[in-house]
Amino acid sequence: MIGKKKREWQDVEYILDFFGRSVGKARKGYVSYVKKGIPLGRRPELVGGGLIRSLGSWVEKDYITGRGRQKDRVRARDLLFYWTAVELGMPMVDLARKFNITPASVSYAVQRGEKMTKERGYQLET
């Protein structure tokens, strides 16, 4: 992720995009994020190649980022947008660009994600 060795299983661009626009800034943000997580130790519930934990089960990254209005896909996206925009501070306009949707769509998803986290007691653990 931050070294020079390429690993086929790492989606470096996808991950670093969440931490900054330039590669340098993104890597610094990623390193900071990892350093904050080290004291938490290894967490088996967060391990799973290419999978994202969502709504009580593992969901493929491509399923969340792909197009479609399936209920579980929409809920997972709503949570992703809410946590990324509100908790992690990524501008909604940047999320809109990454997902090729309108900023208004992201805004509505963030509102739904916020409502869902409050109603169901979901928390982003950092």
Task: Give a verbal description of the structure.
There is one protein chain. The protein has 126 residues and is mostly helical. The chain folds into two domains: 1-41, no CATH class; 45-119, Chromosomal Replication Initiator Protein Dnaa, Chain: A (Orthogonal Bundle). 54% of the residues lie in helices and 6% in strands. The chain has helices at residues 12-16, 23-37, 61-65, 71-87, 92-99, 103-120, and strands at residues 51-54, 57-60. A two-stranded antiparallel ribbon has the order 1-2. Strand 1 (51-54) and strand 2 form a beta hairpin. Helix 5 (92-99) crosses helix 6. The longest helix has 18 residues, at 103-120.
Tags for this model:
single chain; 126 residues; mainly alpha; Chromosomal Replication Initiator Protein Dnaa, Chain: A; 6 helices; globular
Summarize the structure.
With 126 residues, this protein is mainly alpha-helical.
Secondary-structure class: mainly alpha
Strand content: 5-15%
Quote the average pLDDT. Answer: 79
Strand order of the largest sheet: 1-2
CATH architecture of the largest domain: Orthogonal Bundle
Helix content: 40-55%
Kindly report the CATH topology of the largest domain.
Answer: Chromosomal Replication Initiator Protein Dnaa, Chain: A
Q: Give a count of the beta strands, DSSP E runs of length 2 or more.
A: 2
Give the low-confidence spans.
Answer: none
Name given to the CATH homologous superfamily of the largest domain? DnaA protein, C-terminal DNA-binding domain
